[in-house]
Amino acid sequence: MEKICAEGLTFFGKTNRLISHELKNILAIISETLGLQDELMELSESGMGLTPERLRSMSDSIIEEVERANTVIRCMNTFAHSVDEFVREVDLNEAVSLAIQLVKLNPFSKTVKIEFLETGSRAIYTSPFFLEALLYHAIHFALSAAAADKHIKVSLLADSDGAGVEISGIAPNGFEAFPTKQTALLTKAVGAEISFDMSHGKFHFVLPQKITGTPAEALLVKQ
Amino acid sequence: MEEILKMKLLLVDDEEKFVSRLAERLELRGFEADWSTTSEDALAKVSAEKYDIAVLDVKMPTMSGIDLKNRIEKMAPGIKFIFVTGHGSEQDYDTVCREAVCCIIKPFKIEALVEKIEQALNI
């Protein structure tokens, strides 16, 4: 039980570091762009060319970075709210979308394409925080073990297969390190069952419709 | 200051807008500054040109700034390094600064980077 709590705290800290790092990158771009704009405008007062197009391009760039920062902060806010209620109804599409956004904050994720094949809404009653942690680690693993085409696909299981998530695009020898310590612990925490198909480079986990009787639920303080 | 302006810089960061604009601002100050957004391109540049200082981002997609530093050092012994990091904790700063004499945290004022360049060249 303590390991699950510790893993939760580690995940929370890591996610905040990723968000902080991304926001610092964005601030650095805005800072350099404004500094350059300022310096070029000074030069233009001495007759050296600063075209309106260049000025507009830099202004557009700042707007883009502000929007990028806003997206990151929205993501941070959604993640922060995942601990408002320890267990509640969770939309799997939303949970997967958030996990993908968080994984994409890792620099190495830029080298791999992540495609989320969204389907109809599917809800389960679970711990949003631990589910998020599981999805994050599962997708992170997939990116690190991606096959040569560097294309990971994430989708929800068909209704007939139960509530769950499938991730494909793993290299054949990628499963040597699977499940990771975090994935194994978090799978157990939310009462999921995980299975993998090495020959097709994919794995999936089936989630219980309700988290009743799982280690994560046991962490709830009884009223 | 005149001596410093003869130095050739290589800036490496995966954020193109950041690194290209930083290079341009350094050029406005009289430095000669090339830039790369990938470690592969940076290594290609180092093999083709002689640089005095490499300013490296710590966290990049395919190779860390520290690993890139080690590769560059083998190709160009004597080159000085400055690390740029987006991490703000004291621990992260200490970790990175063990690998390079100079490091600086984003976002920074360009004057602070120029000071770091002077510091790196005086070691």
Structure in words:
The complex is a heterodimer of chains A (223) and B (123). By secondary structure, chain A is of the alpha+beta class. Chain A folds into two domains: 2-82; 85-215, Histidine kinase-like ATPase, C-terminal domain (Heat Shock Protein 90, 2-Layer Sandwich), CATH 3.30.565.10. Chain A contains six helices and seven strands; from the N terminus they run ααβαββαββαββα. Chain A has helices at 2-44, 52-80, 92-103, 128-144, 181-189, 215-218, and strands spanning 88-91, 113-117, 123-126, 151-156, 164-168, 193-197, 202-206. In chain A, helix 1 packs antiparallel against helix 2 (52-80) and helix 3 (92-103) packs across helix 4 (128-144). The longest helix of chain A has 43 residues, at 2-44. Chain A starts with a helix and ends in a 5-residue tail after the last helix. In chain B, strand 4, helix 4 and strand 5 (102-105) form a beta-alpha-beta unit. With 123 residues, chain B is of the alpha/beta class. Chain B has helices spanning 16-28, 39-48, 65-75, 90-99, 110-122; strands at residues 8-12, 32-36, 53-57, 80-85, 102-105. In chain B, helix 2 packs parallel to helix 3. Chain B is 46% helix and 20% strand. Chain B has one domain: Rossmann fold (3-Layer(aba) Sandwich). Chain B is built from five helices and five strands. At the A-B interface, helix 1 of A face helix 1 of B.
Largest sheet of chain B: 5 strands, parallel
Number of domains of chain A: 2
**Quick one: CATH superfamily of the largest domain in chain A?**
Histidine kinase-like ATPase, C-terminal domain
Rg for CA atoms of chain A = 21 Å
Which CATH architecture of the largest domain in chain A?
2-Layer Sandwich
The tally of structural domains of chain B comes to 1
**Class per helix and strand makeup of chain A:** alpha+beta
Strand content of chain B: 15-25%
Tell me the strand order in the biggest sheet of chain B. 2-1-3-4-5
Q: Examine the secondary-structure arrangement and name the CATH architecture of chain B.
A: 3-Layer(aba) Sandwich
| Gross geometry of chain A | elongated
First CA to last CA of chain A: what distance? 19 Å
CATH class of chain B: Alpha Beta
**What is the C-alpha radius of gyration of chain B, as a whole number of Å?**
13 Å
Largest sheet: number of strands, sense, barrel closure of chain A: 5 strands, mixed
Largest interface: A-B, 24 and 21 residues
The sequence of SSEs of chain A as H and E is HHEHEEHEEHEEH
Mean pLDDT of chain B: 88
The count of DSSP E runs of length 2 or more, i.e. the number of strands of chain A, is: 7
